[in-house]
Amino acid sequence: MKLKSWLPALFLMSLPLASLLAQPVLPLYTGNIPNSIPSSAQEQSTTDANGSVHVSNVVQPSLTVYVPPAGTANGTSIIVCPGGGYGFLSMTNEGTEIAQRFTGMGITVFILKYRLPNDALQPDKSIAPLMDAQQALRLVREVAPKYNLNPERIGLMGFSAGGHLAATAGTQFARPVGPKPGPASVRPAFLMLIYPVISFSDSLANGGSRTNLLGQNPAAAQLVQYSADRQVTAQTPPTFLVHAQDDNGVKVQNSLAFYEACVHHGVPAEMHLFAKGGHGFGLHNATTTDDWSERLREWLAANGWLTR
Q1: What's the whole-number mean pLDDT along residues 104-128?
Q2: How would you classify the pairing of strands 108-113 and 62-66?
Q3: Is residue 98 over pLDDT 80?
Q4: Which of 48, 158, 227, 264 is the S-S candidate for 163 at Cβ 3.0 to 4.6 Å?
Q5: What is the CA radius of gyration of the chain?
């Protein structure tokens, strides 16, 4: 049996029963969902041979809440954006497994099921994911008292295209999208970008992500707007990056470009590169014994985000 085929199942078998039960789900919006077209479309969920869940055609965006074991919460929270090329959401290896790992650090985790760009469901598909990420930040701030969270310690984590979404939200918080965004801040306290799509330039772009978000013939201004390395400023949150050199899905130069932009603007950034690992490895880079999530735990601790 191949290593990758049994890792997810083994991971889930090792979890306590309580952690496998249904988690609270918070709808992102009350009433009508902004930037949406009424439709009879239904969300679709599939499970592959390895037990990994993929969700597509998201109509009702939401946050699924994972709380730390009793007595261990430290007030920090993260919103997790699964990847999938803006065509689906990889909800297991870039969602539930991540939640299990980080609740073990005392962090409250919110998995974001965001709308995927779709001309049939949104008047402007290019802003739908970002609108949902920004609303997720508002909602976590709103429910912070209920979950004993520090509203100034909300991080945003993204994988692959979810990393593009997190990087976009982390660099464009000064310009909230959508109608009547309100006064609540949509700036995350820190970013964690795992093999992220960053640039939409011809030389670096993941073609599927760019086409799904912006269409076949995006304007030059859109390519700049949605290239997160071009949007970094001194106000960009501290950032942690992970990538593999042999990633054939999203070139490692995406992370390098974002890191270089952070250095240029004086933004604290830490980057961990693997020689091998490919794309989409989630927590489990089978080519190395080095655990990037442990490196991330050390980074979080060094910055005070694991202190109660």
Answers
A1: 97
A2: antiparallel
A3: yes
A4: 158
A5: 18
What 3-state class would DSSP assign to 12?
A: helix
- C-alpha 28/C-alpha 79 separation (Å) is 13
pLDDT of residue 22: 67
Give the number of other CB atoms < 10 A from CB of residue 283. Answer: 17
43-302: CATH superfamily: Alpha/Beta hydrolase fold, catalytic domain (3.40.50.1820)
How would you write 208-245 as a 3-class SS string? Answer: HHHHHHHCCCCCHHHHHHCCHHHCCCCCCCCEEEEEEC
Show the beta-strand stretches assigned E in 70-152: 77-81, 89-90, 108-113
Q: What is the pTM of this model?
A: 0.92
Question: What count of Cα atoms within 13 Å lies in the side-chain half-sphere of residue 32?
Answer: 8
Find the DSSP H helices in 227-291.
253-264
- In the chain the first and final C-alpha atoms are separated, in Å, by 43
- pLDDT of 6 above 90: no
Mean pLDDT of 166-176: 97
Residue 159, pLDDT > 70, answer: yes
Confidence grade of residue 254 (pLDDT, cut at 50, 70, 90):
very high
Residues 281 and 8: their CA atoms lie apart, in Å, by 11
